[in-house]
Amino acid sequence: MKLQKVLNLFNVAIYIRLSREDGDKEESDSVGNQRKLLTEYVSRHDDFILYDIYIDDGYTGTNFNRPAFQKMIADIEDKKVNCVVVKDLSRFGRDYIDTGRYLERIFPELGVRFISVSDNIDSIKQAYDMLLPIKNIFNEQYARDISNKIQATVKSKQKAGEFIGAFTSYGYKKSPVNKNKLVIDEYASEVVKRIFAMYAQGIGKQSIAKQLNAEGILCPSEYKKLNGENYKNCNRLKTTSYWTYSTINTMLHNEMYIGNMIQGKKHQRMRGKQHKVDKENWVRVENTHEPIIDRDTWDKVRKLLSKKHRDIDLETNKNIFAGFIKCGDCGRSMMKNFWRRADGSKSYSFYCGTYKRSGKDYCTPHTLPFQVLNDIVLGDLKAIIRNVENLQELIKKQSCTELKIKNSTNTELIKVKAELERVKKLKKSIYEDYKDELISKEEYLSYREDYQQKEALYSKQIETLEAKKKETVTEDVFETPWLKRLLELKDIEELDRDIVVEMIDEITVYENRKIKIRYNFGDELEHLFSNVYSVDMEKKAI
Length: 542
Prior knowledge:
By secondary structure, this protein is α/β, with parallel strands linked by helices. It has 18 helices and 17 strands.
């Protein structure tokens, strides 16, 4: 160890972290890219000896309860490591108070050198600048403000009947003189008229799709591509180009064809996923563009659509999963198919709707017996409920620890507030010194800028600590409606339609009986579990 100190060598720990929940970019922040960047960086320094690489893949940066990180800290405390290298500060941690505590207090006390390659931070060359994360927070807030302003502008244009989408409905195109105005596409509009006419004559949606496919007429997505549009339909098979029952059904319900502008069907927050908007909240403006379908034809088609609607009778048709099951490859709804057992009893399985309607050239069966799906969903729901019960017990045991954390936060808050008051007094005193000509103007301006930066820092620390006091998980979280409901179902032994509707958002079925269940409470529960368990609320497989 003495020899190492004389030679001024460093035992280096490379730390790597990746988490989709934090909005990390898969390509630029991937584990492989981080490893390549950091190992090359270490190899270029003669005074670096790589001790180990610590990887937390799939762990959030909002806390430090990560296995690889904790192992690295243990090795630092055992004097095995005295230098930590990361790609950027966000890989190390996203909680700027705790991150600052490690970089300003813990690492210096342990004699650990800290390097953030992309941020050009090296603690041996200069002290860690606590203003850097504050700048990042300001940049984030600026981006959010811009996002809100853009959304307000978009909503205003929608209410004015201006088209603001990237792609028009099949049958229309953007006006060459005004991109917010729709004009008729002569070729595609004739296909739309034909579809409405065929349905009005009593021809079924699947028969219409088969007829158009047989004639080689391009489906909407392929037609858009032919016209140079970079259009992608996530619900369509990548290797095929065809009209489907779903496409025809969607077109027959589209009010755009009678001249009404319908927008705002989905909403997306900054860096979030798109969510469907309830129909009553869509932005609907009448008579904004030339109609393709006349009112008489539209009304006739609407009557036919309503007559052919069939409600599910749950007494005789016990498909409790109706409307929730999708094919994992083509995105279409799964259909059921009845069959009789050897003992004469009746049962059924689910099959891909595209396969059943259009055949094996368009998709594969994705066969899944009802009883298998029922058992999997029931078992999975029971496992989640057990986790909730375990979490409840764990939180009770940790109540003392939670109290210590709150007390620690309160103590730190008092200290920071005292520092803020001290800085304010110092700032006031240097002004008095300047007025009394005890310091020059240049000195006064320099001191004032320094104190203003510290004021901003301490104010932000106080804001963060106040927020942190509220974030501590306590038994009160079990007053959350979803958690209360899950605990009420702890003795569940059988699924019914009401439970499926209440608990499940979507079930995606893949070949070989692999499924993915997305729950209505998934995001909320996963956020709660994130500090205690490593839980995936989506990916489930048989």
